[in-house]
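@channel sequence for tomorrow's demo:
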Amino acid sequence: RISDGPPMLRSENGRPVTWIYVDGRGRDLQTLVGDLQTAIAREVKLPPGISVSYTGQFEFLVRATERMKIVVPVTLAIIFALLYLTFRRWDEALLIMGTLPFALTGGLWLLNLLGYNQSVASGVGFIALAGVALVGILLRSRKPHTPAAKERKSKPRFEDPLTQPVASLTAPPASATKKAKTAPCRTSWLPSKPVRVADAPAYLIRLVNGGEPASVAPIPVNEKEMTFGTDPVQSVRVLDDPSISPLHARIKQTDNGVFTIYDNNSVAGTWVNFDPVPREGRRLVHGDRIHFGGLVYRFDLKQAPPAPEPRVISKK
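structure tokens (generated this afternoon):
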């Protein structure tokens, strides 16, 4: 007896097998296979010993998805670790991690506009995009290298509390003759322009040469909380010096006019009258000398407190 049959018998894993090819052009593979599984489970009743499996590109997609479930959390953990090592604060690292999804919105919009479906390649691209956003944040937080930094390395500084705290108190000021030689020549018929300083309850006056006021405008302390550092994004007042951290210190003002300074885990430290600022902060009084790393300032109130009257104490 001769009858028609398949020209070839195929087997896989010791079981006879046949393939049904499905063309899913115009649809994403994940949705197509999901619809097939739902339709077969609802309309096809498989006899005992027969099973259905989905191979081809879908099998590769399942393997890649399982691998991405490991790669994505590890990548996010590495990004968070780098942010914490840069800023040394959990809250800032978590804040930046919360903004990373917004950096990916442009890629999602572009996929939608071009009509592309989400795939393994696009997922890898989004991981790379998150890394590029992190690099931009880290580079933005670093202070640019300026020629003033090179000059500072070759020029001794007496106001650094880490090296010569006593010398900065005892070093004599520059003489008037030296000032006359080093001061720039100014023509008498050119009127000097007065420096405009904003009105504030307190000021930070820059000190040089062991305690002399520098020829720069004082910094007005006119906000409830002022931050100091090299990063213009995190700091209200940018201090350009190699010893300053991206977010170095902060000064808070209470409603009753009390000023308190805090150090923000800086590398060079924050000092008041040659004493390091404790973790709970230190209250500032009129005339305090503040060291932000290698920069020295004097804290002056707008209305200086009256000097105490002398008291005569008689000893019997």
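heads up for whoever presents: The chain has eight helices and 14 strands.
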